[in-house]
Specification:
The chain has five helices and no strands. It is mostly helical and 88 residues long. The longest helix has 30 residues.
């Protein structure tokens, strides 16, 4: 299913100029730009998840052990960070 892309006059003029200069359609350039944006966004999200997993490995380990236990566990890292309420 298609859609109509509405651009302001300045953006439309820039897109038209780039399309003419590159010998490509405005549609092709817009679709390429979207694909590049999606790829960057996915890479950004993947990097955020990797960073979270690396930085919070201790907390994740604590939570995974806590799941099967009835005793509260408070790690030194949680106490020092002020998150002891969440780490019990």
């Amino acid at each position: 299913m298609g859609m109509t892309l509405r651009l302001n006059d300045d953006d439309n003029a820039k897109l038209r100029e780039v399309a003419e200069r590159e010998g490509r359609s405005m549609h092709e350039i817009a679709v390429t730009a979207l694909h590049e944006y999606f790829a960057r966004h996915e890479e950004f999200r993947a990097n955020q998840v990797r960073r979270f997993l690396a930085e919070d490995a201790d907390l994740l380990e604590l939570l995974s052990r806590r799941r099967g236990s009835t005793m509260p566990i408070v790690s030194p890292r949680c106490s020092a960070s002020g998150l002891s309420t969440f780490c019990r």
